[in-house]
Design goal:
A six-stranded mixed sheet has the order 1-2-3-4-5-6, covered by helices on one side. Strands 7-8-9-10-12 form a five-stranded mixed sheet. Strands 11-14-13 form a three-stranded mixed sheet, with helices on one face. Helix content is about 20%, strand content about 20%. The protein has five helices and 14 strands. It is of the alpha/beta class. Helix 4 runs antiparallel to helix 5. It is globular and about 50 Å long. A hairpin with a 4-residue loop joins strand 9 and strand 10.
Length: about 300
């Protein structure tokens, strides 16, 4: 039997920008955290108009990644981080950090009044912990976390099968519903850089599945998408795998000195699709080199 998206990976060129830098050593916590001297957020310029932030794992062990994509008119922000764990003792200046990036970029490009659009890969607390810092701020829109909020904002009337676009001003994003890990999960494809943001659905770690039928369908959509689009990088929101194939760091780890790199590839999505397709209606924990399928 052949799966609907099995076979060779076929990519089509859409003029993806080449200046992309992921040669970075991410901050990865400390042991003990009382000795930690890292910034609250590490800021990495992936490209001139694309930034990746990594939250200090000693603020919250989840250590999530946040993404900023600049258009001519709008700055697209995905996720606001994980709120500090009790007694972390480290400040959580997510809005201050983001505003400085926006202000500096605006000055370099002679821009004023850039609008900030705050969205979420999904609604879990470790990706929405800084929402309150952005709500009610000037030139800022915070999209709601419920599935109906996401659908209404992006104009999705055929959830979860309808894909829509969002124009930031000279930069178009494709919004792809991918529920299964969480009901409001979305993937975001940036036509300019070719990056595909996949939240907690695909990343180097434990892929927690809460709605198996929805997750299967979402992975099939992602697999079909990467076979017909030029995807340069697949970027999720955590790193939980170590550099040792198939070995993850324990939950609540605050120090990951030998963690795997963040970026994944379209081949990983096809590998994941083949894995969930073979499970049919009986999901099981399935360990792969770079991720673990983890039904809940």
């Amino acid at each position: 039997m052949t799966s609907p998206v099995a076979g060779a990976l076929i990519l089509f060129a859409f003029g993806v920008a080449a200046s992309q830098d992921l040669n970075v050593r991410w901050i990865h916590g400390s042991d003990p955290c009382s000795s930690n001297t890292d910034a609250a957020f590490q800021v990495h310029a992936f490209a001139e108009d694309t930034f990746i932030l990594r939250e200090n794992k000693c603020i919250n062990y989840e250590g999530p990644f946040i993404y900023l994509l600049f258009g001519n008119d709008v700055v697209f922000m995905q996720d606001t981080g994980a709120a500090p764990a009790a007694n972390s003792g480290i400040a959580f200046p997510v809005r201050q950090t983001v505003q400085k990036i926006v202000d500096d970029w605006s000055k370099r490009h002679g821009k004023t009044g850039m609008r900030l659009l705050v969205t979420h890969s999904h609604a879990h607390d470790d990706h929405t912990g800084g929402d309150s810092q952005f709500e009610g701020q000037p030139n800022t829109t915070v999209v709601g976390k419920k599935p109906e909020d996401v659908q209404a904002f992006f104009g999705i009337t055929g959830w979860p099968n309808q894909q829509v676009t969002l124009d930031l001003g000279g930069r178009v994003l494709d919004i792809i519903p991918i529920p299964g890990h969480e009901p409001s999960s979305i993937a975001v494809y940036d036509r300019k850089t070719g990056i595909l943001l996949t939240g907690d659905t695909v990343y180097p770690g434990r892929l927690y599945v809460r709605d198996w039928p929805a997750f299967k369908s979402s992975i099939e959509r992602l697999a079909s998408f990467v076979k017909t689009h030029d995807v340069s990088q697949v970027l999720g929101t955590h790193i939980e795998m170590s550099t040792k194939p198939g070995v993850d760091y324990p939950v609540r780890t605050t120090y990951q000195p030998e963690e795997r790199e963040l970026q994944m590839t379209p081949a990983h999505i096809l590998e994941l699709y083949q894995a969930v397709w073979k499970m049919a209606d009986t999901p099981v924990r399935d360990i792969h080199k770079d991720f673990i399928v983890y039904p809940r």
